[in-house]
Amino acid sequence: MSTTEIGLQNRTMAPGERDKSDENAFGLASVDHFALPTRNIAVMERFVREVLGGVPYYYAGFDETDRNMGRVPHIFIRVGNVLFQCTEVPEGEMTVSKDDENIAPHVAFKVTAKDLEANFERLKKIIPVSGPYRHRGIDCTTFYFMTPEGHKLEICTWEPYPEDKSLMMGAPGVGIMKWSDLVHDWPNVPGKSA
């Protein structure tokens, strides 16, 4: 069934409407946590603390009792009011890929306009970033980056942001960002991994 057959069309809201309501028919209020697989939990833990400002909350699977129970190493690190869960998958398939150009899955962190600019300036010194971008028909400004393994991350603001400090995503001469441009091997020298 196509979007035309079901009547979907572009929809926009007035600027500033993003936080006017948290109404949900089922009482779902916000994201509590999200989970990402990792092959190197030590690097991921350090990345979340040092790059995202994460605060350790709950770590499990590291002692003999947990190993005997079959619990794999996993961590919960608080980033703002959301828990960032990382679970080690030493064997088996991990769907994260540095060469995947799809926008999803990704995780977005909400900040003020001032903090968007500060984080963009801070992160572009240590890893590749793309943006900031404005999005057509919505009052959101954002930039994108990745973890060393290729998890896609975004920082966005719904506050007014100076147009002269951002690009219109998809505009002529701007285009759509490419995830492959954001590949890095942090904490080593930023740039494409060999």
Describe the structure in your own words:
The protein has 194 residues and is α/β, with parallel strands linked by helices. The longest helix has 12 residues. Among the domains are: 56 residues, 2,3-Dihydroxybiphenyl 1,2-Dioxygenase, domain 1 (Roll), CATH 3.10.180; 77 residues, 2,3-Dihydroxybiphenyl 1,2-Dioxygenase, domain 1 (Roll), CATH 3.10.180. It is built from 4 helices and 9 strands, in the order αβαβαβββαββββ. The mean pLDDT is 85. It is globular and about 55 Å long.
Mean pLDDT: 85
Order of helices and strands: HEHEHEEEHEEEE
Structural class estimated from helices and strands = alpha/beta
Oligomer: single chain
Q: Estimate what percentage of residues fall within beta strands.
A: 25-35%
Biased composition (Polar residues): 1-12
Domain VOC: 30-158
InterPro entries: Glyas_Bleomycin-R_OHBP_Dase, VOC_core
Organism: Aminobacter aganoensis
